[in-house]
Write a structure and sequence with these properties.
Blueprint lengths: L11 H20 L1 H4 L3 H6 L6 H12 L2 H14 L14 H14 L6 H9 L4 H33 L2 H4 L12 H51 L28 H10 L4 H17 L6 H7 L4 H32 L18 H9 L4 H36 L7 H20 L5 H12 L1 H12 L5 H21 L9 H17 L6 H11 L6 H10 L9 H26 L3 H21 L8
Helix pairs in contact: 1-10, 1-16, 4-10, 4-13, 4-14, 4-16, 5-8, 5-14, 6-12, 6-14, 6-24, 7-8, 8-10, 8-15, 8-16, 8-17, 8-18, 8-20, 10-14, 10-16, 10-17, 12-19, 13-16, 14-15, 14-24, 16-17, 19-20, 19-21, 20-21, 22-23, 24-25
Amino acid sequence: MAYKVFTADMNFWDFAVIAAYLLCVTVIGILLRKKSRQTKEDYLMGGKRLPWWLLGISNASGMFDISGTIWMVSIMFVYGVKSIWLPWLWPVFNQVFMFVYLSIWLRRSNASTGAEWMETRFGKRATGAQRIIIVFALLSCLSFMAYGFIGLGKFVEIFIPFSSISPFLPFSIPADFVPHFYGIIFTLFAVFYAILGGMSSIVWADLVQYSLMALGAFCIALFAISELRTHDLIVPEGWKDLHFQWDLGVNWEGILPEVNKKIEEDGFHPFGLFFTLMFTKGILSSLAGPAPNYDMQKILSTRNPKEAALMSMFVNVVLLPTRYLMIIGFTVLALLYYPQLDLQTASGEVDFEKILPSTILKFAPAGLLGLFLVELLSAFMGTFAGTLNAAQAYIVNDIYLRFKKDRKGNLQKVHFLSGLGVVSLSIFLGLFAKDVNSILQWIVGALYAGFISANVLKWHWWRFNGTGYAVGMAVGILCAMVFPYLFPDTLPLYYFPLILALSFLGGVLGSYSSPATDRNTLKAFYSQVNPWGFWKPIEEEVRKDSPDFAPNPDFKKDMGNVTLGILAQTAITALPVFLVLWMWKEVAITSLLLGICVVTLFFTWYKKLPNQ
């Protein structure tokens, strides 16, 4: 039995759910306001007292962003089960590298931000490295906030047509900028509790938000499972296959021909080449460690290195099954009732990024419509608030306090003003974004390509210095800004190798053009963090001073655990998709693979974690 098609009108219960949610996060911000004012660490890092499982849920909530979910529903609709590979663009498996060993390395630094970490690695004179990481951090945070801003606007536009409110406004807005208008309005709600209560407020609000998102995901998955009992899913051959060949082999001709146009525009072909580049970039990105955003801040906010590893592991457990239950649930309903969806833009084109909000609008019963709206609004708020907090950390800790030793005085005012400034600038950048996919491709294909080389070298090569880091990052950022104009019709991933090579060359030349980092700084870093890599000269000097020092022998073990982790992560992602689609053979095989990986990791990873 099909679900009733609903209109945009929401009843009392829908508004009550939304009001209760907004009231809840507001109260959290107010209650934690005083506690966050005690010290800089209390505001930016929750005083490093928050439990790892709570930080893990918070981090997962931040990654459960609305724009990413809109994009992932659209690609699941178009590419089917094969779309599970496409988020490797980020790459999603960087969380595996994090929990296996990189979170431990990072947390051992005891830094407050990525810029402060530079002093641990390059010494107090590494001002160039600190400045460039601040630039990158703010640029990436602003980009992610603009990305979320556009997704939120597109989402809200479906439920509140501008024509319904335009008679009450003293101004008119061009149709293409209506999503931006809604993005501005709802961004203000996210700003309030993030600025008011700092990290503690964000983390506890994220717990509420994740609970709502999980509830909504299970509801929509149950709806989809129920519908598939009485309806056939009409999709192209290969749509339900996880494996692929040189080409994707998904052809919608004779079913929904307009989807083929979307496939052509995406430019993910030949998929074999695209996947190879994506996987290679993903491995290198993961070796570089976390970007200086909310993910890094959550790791640095844990109590100790062991909890940092557990937190990164827990992100995969709470994020992926829940998110993909939602994604496949909405995709199934959209496929079954595609003719009833409104995917037309103002110019008459089909916009597949409108599948998610349009499906909610058509199939959510009274009360649950409010729940789904809150679920996606909270996804936006969690991401936006966490990213805002990370940007504030760099402005307050690495710019303001570096020049003015203000421990109390105007610090709260600086927190407030820096938050407003970052939000205003992100909105301004969002006004120039075409759509969710375009800004996503730039972030993961161009901007992060400039991040990789310098940040792989900083962990693994002793001779790499602050000058090399600054030059390598500067070259990478410059290329990311210029290449979209030099190669306007090329997917950013395809010129990623060129950005990677140029930034690597800049980093090596910059390092050899200046003296090596002070030996005492290198010895302190190596003995404290104890990374594996090309550290032989420093290892020898450390062992002269401390004969009992044991260098890190775990490269092979860590890479083995990374392989198991990626298999487990892929299995835990695919399992809910196969379950909703009633693919029982695939469910059994995937469950067996997941079980083997989990049991093995228990002995090869968990049992070997540091004691604290």
